[in-house]
Amino acid sequence: MNAPLLEIKNLQTHFFSERGAARAVDGVSLIMERGSFLGIVGESGCGKTVMALSVMGLIQSPPGRIAGGEILFEGRNLLALPPDEIRAIRGKEISMIFQEPMTSLNPVFRVQDQIIEVLEQHRKVSRKAAIEATRKLLHQVGIPSAEEHMRDYPHQMSGGMRQRVMIAMAIACEPKLIIADEPTTALDVTIQAQILDLLQELREVYRCAVMLITHDLGIVAEVADRVVVMYTGRIVEEAPVVDLFEKPLHPYTQGLMRSIPGSRASRGKKRLEAISGVVPSLFDLPRGCRFNTRCTYAFERCFVEPEPELLTVEKGHSVRCRLYEG
Ligand code: SF4
Question: Which of 137, 156, 237, 294 could lock 152 by a disulfide, CB 3.0 to 4.6 Å apart?
């Protein structure tokens, strides 16, 4: 099959309230190939999680609604499929790992029963085979003495172990795409590194693609092939990870770099620099470039002309900024 694994075209996901429509995802287009590892980076409220939930068919309506665009998975537009077909794809072909496993794991069921349920539902295996597969999965995601922990309830496990259980559930059906939304944010640094290594390893074993959503550009440097940087619902830069770190183009990406300890952009500085100002409200976006209220390079055209388009400046590297026009 020649179609990319995932192609998002001009996605518009809006939330409606008395204040009006908040365009949380506003015209996002991207492509993921099979087996690729894509990092989606941006501050909270930039639309990265809403985009992922849109792919999963998990936007709560109301107040949310996908107002336009297409989400093509192996060429099929997920937005046009009936709910039962979406349910069949979710968990089996595309699975998601959330930041806080306690919100996704059911506290009143044993860990093994929650994984078994996924296997029985999507793989139609016998109970005996599902129990054996669960034991193997828990072992594979690095739960020590998996046999002993299978009958634990989620609250009996550490945060790192719960996240491993979530990962076991996510890979149970050998999906083609795993979406991991801030999977390490709630964990301490050592466990963070282990979970990232595990995602890398599983990607190689299962040959699945991974979309890693994070506010931390330092994390994607270690694992991703490509990076998409989002701001106020828009992609502002996209590049292979090496190019982005060698030559970040957008002033916002450069600001994110300066806030990473030990990065090239922060080297020699006594203190890490934060990006000045705050992310504008989606109900009250600035005229012109949406980053103009925080940008140290802003000039007159950034305020008076319409928002810049996403420009490809070199192969595979695009940026939404007037500094690169012409
Ligand atoms: Fe800054 Fe202007 Fe570029 Fe926006 S278009 S990022 S305000 S220089």
Answer: 156
Q: Which atom of ligand 1 is nearest to the CA of 296?
A: 1
Distance of CA 295 from the midpoint of ligand 1 (Å)? 6
Nearest-5° angle of CA 181, CA 317, CA 52?
A: 20
Mean pLDDT per block of 10 residues along the chain (326 residues) reads 92 94 96 96 94 95 95 96 91 89 87 92 87 92 88 92 91 93 85 89 92 92 94 98 96 91 63 82 95 96 97 96 93
CB of 323 shorter than 6 A to ligand 1 = yes
Beta bridge partners of 31: 7
Question: Of 113, 147, 158, 136, which is closest to residue 205 (Cα–Cα)?
Answer: 136
The dihedral built from the CA positions of residue 106, 109, 115 and 116, taken in this order, carries a sign that is negative
β pairing state of 64-73 and 37-41: unpaired
Give distance in angstroms: CA of 38 to centre of ligand 1.
25
Q: Is the full-model pTM beyond 0.90?
A: yes
C-alpha–C-alpha distance, residues 62 and 16, integer Å: 8
Question: Roughly what angle, to the nearest 10 degrees, separates helices 189-206 and 159-171?
Answer: 10
